[in-house]
Amino acid sequence: MSRIVIAGASNASRAQLNRLLAASGNTVFRSCASGGELRRALSVCEDGIVLIAGSLPDMLPGDIAQDFGDSFQILLIGRPDALEACESPQVFKLAYPCPGSAVLAAVEMLSQLHTMRMPHRNPEEQTLVEDAKRLMMLRDGIDEPEAHRRMQRYAMRNHIKMTDYAAMVLRDDEGVGSRQ
User: Fold this and answer.
1) Which of 29, 62, 91, 125 measures 20 to 30 Å from 176, CA to CA?
2) Contact at 8 Å (CB) between 79 and 95?
3) Do the Cβ atoms of 75 and 31 come closer than 8 Å?
4) 142 and 108: one domain?
5) Total Cβ atoms within 10 A of residue 13
């Protein structure tokens, strides 16, 4: 099951979504009232589904899609005018008011899309990525989520696999060590 993060300015909307998801057997990883809080939650979570109820006071759904759209499926639930204002093709939209069954069906669809999109690494590739993250953490004084985020962003921007970038990080470190 994909991790689910709920975001929205309204406590009532977030609570309603949380109850709906819990009643259907889904677990909410975190509930966020602002864009800054959502960014922090997504950095920790690393991948999953984001449900945005209405709006956030300090961030647009398109901003989240731009920064996290490669790791998260994003669903914006809002009034038709708010949905029209979001132009990001990475954001799925559901008009409010809508029945709970429509929200659950959308979450199930996004969960399936998320599962299909996520890379499946063999144990050797996973070890390579973990070794590169550990090296970056030691070398750069960062935590694991930040190392993962840096690797992920570099790989996406340069259109390479994360495992290929991990191999580059480790190879470059060996080259530095042999020259000293």
Assistant:
1) 125
2) yes
3) no
4) no
5) 19
